[in-house]
Amino acid sequence: MAGLATVLGSGAMTNTIGEIEDAGAIFVIGSNTTENHPVIGYRVRKAVRKGAKLIVADPRRIPLTEICDAYLPLKPGTDVALLNAMTHVILREGLEDREFIANRTEGLEEMRRAVEKYTPEYAAAITGVPANDIVRAARLYAGADSAAILYTMGVTQHTSGTENVLSLANLALVTGNLGKPHAGLNPLRGQNNVQGACDMGALPVVFTGYQPVANDEVRAKFVKAWGVELSGVPGLTITEMFQAAADKKVRAMYIMGENPILTDPDANHIYECLESLDFLVVEDIFLTETAQVADVVLPAATFAEKDGTFVNTERRVQRVRQAIKPRGQSEPDWQIIQELARRCGFEWQYESSRQIMEEISFLTPSYAGITFERLEAGGLQWPCPSADHPGTPVLHVGKFSRGLGKFSAVEYRLSAEQPDEEFPFLLTTGRSLYQYHTGTMTMKTDGLNRFHEEELMEINPADAKVLGLCTDDTVNVTSRRGLVRSKIKLTERVQPGVVFMTFHFAETAANLLTNSEVCHIAKTPELKVCAVRIEKA
């Protein structure tokens, strides 16, 4: 969607975290906000206390459903049908922002034709959400003076992930909820510097600041600055890299701060891909499951042991200051990479993270006004194109990067895997408040382990009764890719036919089960939906 290319490409919030608490309505979809983003979850709760209308769409009854005005318990993978139906209701009932649409968008009629068949009744049959609840949610969202959408990987980690986001963009555009305070389309980043990594070109198609590698003019700028020839051919995504390793097209790999043996889908396949490499280097702060199969492990310094910047989910660039010296043989990432470059024959001469930031500002238009000196006074939100620019709290004020925001005609399609007689349940995955990702850090904390020390697969009591299962029973969970053993928890947080697991525990590695099929545009794997069989162990 070119009209929102900067935002959708980078996964950045259009608005700020602080604005959430004064929104008129908040639509949370595919995000267990209070457990995965507790600070933002607090803002949501505060907004509700101030009178905001809260809509929650999630296959599970997450904590926010206790205070919401409309709960939409959709079947995993049916987001497009739900969102198209909400847009259908808004257009049918004349709730759209006609002035915003006329002045700032294009493509409305094509989108209108696409959503015409998505009546609440039609969507209800697909999603399992009652038609009246879909209507109520659409009215609450469209009726607010400002409405913010919050979403995370529950929206993006599907084979239809891009269509899901485009459907959300349609909803924001049709109601005029972009380019103004307390509104916007706000993907919440899952880790502390994911945004910064993407901003700095840790994507296969861009340099820093989302400057395309295929653009000759952009590439020439970097060639001149770095004094080397650069390819204009986009690189591989994560899923493509592992497949290339399996196909013997990639023979060596450098993994930095990632634990794909536990985080990536079809983990048995990931392990086989890593084992097939001629050479594997892992740079990390702990000896993760992935680091244990590496040929060389490079010990990295933690956030407290280095200077630099992090960029948070609201595009805010913030200073990180060294508090202690690096332990043992660990070093800051930039020093490790520079030493490797030198040994490969490149005369890199960076002396500090400050000097690197100066180069970033010189080569990156959206960072041109960001310096260590300015960051001493507090964070700045990009785009910040000049030294006297205050930063940009709200994106798309007045106009979009392409001029007009473009509606997208999006159709619902099935997830790659559906339940059947052999695998009758849908597994969806997520995180817990008390552990984090693969537990590399949190599982070294006794206090957190007391709250959540092992996997407890969530299953609806009605399903458990049919299977003859009781709380704390151990079950085999089997998919077309693997088997894990887990204790269970009977709860109505999950609807019948759906089970839920975290991916924190190596002993119960949920991603041995998940599907590696990817979104055909973003190449994001479908981690949120796979078919499984449940049997008492």
Number of helices: 20
- As a whole number of angstroms, the C-alpha radius of gyration is 23 Å
Strand content: 15-25%
Show unreliable segments: 1-10
Task: Please explain how this structure is put together.
- It is built from 20 helices and 19 strands.
- Helix 4 (79-92) packs antiparallel against helix 7 and helix 13 crosses helix 15 (267-276).
- Mean pLDDT is 90; it is low at 1-10.
- The chain starts with a helix and ends with a strand.
- The chain has three domains: 2-188, Dimethylsulfoxide Reductase, domain 2 (3-Layer(aba) Sandwich); 194-381, Rossmann fold; 425-536, Barwin-like endoglucanases (Beta Barrel), CATH 2.40.40.
- Strand 10 (308-311) and strand 11 form a beta hairpin.
- The longest helix has 14 residues, at 79-92.
- Strands 14-18-15-17-16-19 form a six-stranded mixed beta barrel. Strands 3-2-1-5-6 form a five-stranded parallel β-sheet, sandwiched between helices.
- Helix content is 31%, strand content 16%.
- By secondary structure, the protein is α/β, with parallel strands linked by helices.
Main features:
537 residues, alpha/beta, Dimethylsulfoxide Reductase, domain 2, Rossmann fold, Barwin-like endoglucanases, 3 domains, 5-stranded parallel sheet, 20 helices, 19 strands, 31% helix, 16% strand, disordered N terminus
Topology:
Blueprint: H1 5-10, E1 25-29, H2 33-36, H3 38-49, E2 53-57, E3 70-72, H4 79-92, H5 98-104, E4 105-106, H6 108-115, H7 120-127, H8 131-143, E5 147-151, H9 153-156, H10 161-174, E6 184-187, H11 194-199, H12 216-226, H13 238-246, E7 252-256, H14 260-263, H15 267-276, E8 279-284, E9 296-299, E10 308-311, E11 316-320, H16 333-343, H17 353-363, H18 372-375, E12 380-381, E13 405-406, E14 425-430, H19 446-451, E15 456-459, H20 461-467, E16 474-478, E17 483-490, E18 498-502, E19 530-536
